[in-house]
Amino acid sequence: MQKEDCFYLGNIVSKYSFKGEVLVKLDTDDPEIYENMESVFVSLGNNLVPFFIKRCRLHKSNLLRIDFEEVKSESDADRIMKAGLYLPLTKLPKLTGNKFYYHEVIGFTVIDSVHGDIGVIESVNDTTAQALFEIQKEDKQLLIPINDDIVTKIDRENNTVFVKTPEGLVDLYLN
C-alpha cells in the first residue's frame, strides 16, 4: 500500500500501559467512527506496515487507545512512537452536499458566478491559515480561498466546483 492510496488518520503520541498499548491523536471531526478498527497502516521509515488491532477504543476527546497484536511491551511501543497511522482511501466516510475531501476535487473545473470557467483545481494548499484551491487557467495560477461563503456547490457527477468569489479577486489573476 502506498501513502497516496491512503489518508492520514493520526499520530501515536504516547504509551498507555507497560503492555504496549498506545494513544493515538486522531485527525478527524468524528473520532467515534474509528473505534472498532481491525487494522491500520503504520508509517515506519518510508513504508506503510499493516498492524492488526486486538482492541481499540476512545480515550478522552480525540485520543484512541489501541492495543496492537504485534506490540506486546513498552519497548515494542517505543519503536512505533510518533509514527503516523493511515487507512486506505476506500475507508473514508462518503461526504455529500458541499462537504468534500481535498483530494476528491483535484481535477475539478471551477465555475465562478461572475467569470464562468476560471480553470481546473491542480491542488489544495492547506499549509496556510486559510486553505486555498490552486487553480490553473492556461498559463496563470489562481488562488481561491476555501470557505462556505465562496464554495456554493459541489457537482460530483460533472466534476465541477461552483464558487462565488469576492469582487475583484479573479480579476487580480486574469487581467
Instruction: Determine the strand fraction and express it as a percent band.
Output: over 45%
Q: What is the level-2 CATH architecture name of the largest domain?
A: Beta Barrel
Uncertain regions spanning at least 5 consecutive residues? none
Strand and helix order: EEEEEHEEEEEEEH
For the record, the count of structural domains works out to 2
Layout of strands and helices, then pairs:
Elements: E1 6-15, E2 22-26, E3 39-44, E4 47-59, E5 63-68, H1 74-80, E6 84-88, E7 109-112, E8 116-125, E9 132-137, E10 140-145, E11 151-155, E12 160-163, H2 169-174
Parallel strand pairs: 7-12
Antiparallel strand pairs: 1-2, 1-6, 2-5, 3-4, 3-6, 4-5, 7-8, 8-9, 9-10, 11-12
Account of the 3D structure:
- Its main location: cytoplasm.
- Belongs to the RimM family.
- It is found in: Cytoplasm.
- The protein is mainly β.
- It has helices spanning 74-80, 169-174, and strands at residues 6-15, 22-26, 39-44, 47-59, 63-68, 84-88, 109-112, 116-125, 132-137, 140-145, 151-155, 160-163.
- It folds into two domains: 3-91, RimM (Elongation Factor Tu (Ef-tu), domain 3); 108-172, SH3 type barrels (Roll), CATH 2.30.30.
- A hairpin with a 2-residue loop joins strand 3 (39-44) and strand 4 (47-59).
- It is elongated, with a radius of gyration of 20 Å.
- The mean pLDDT is 92.
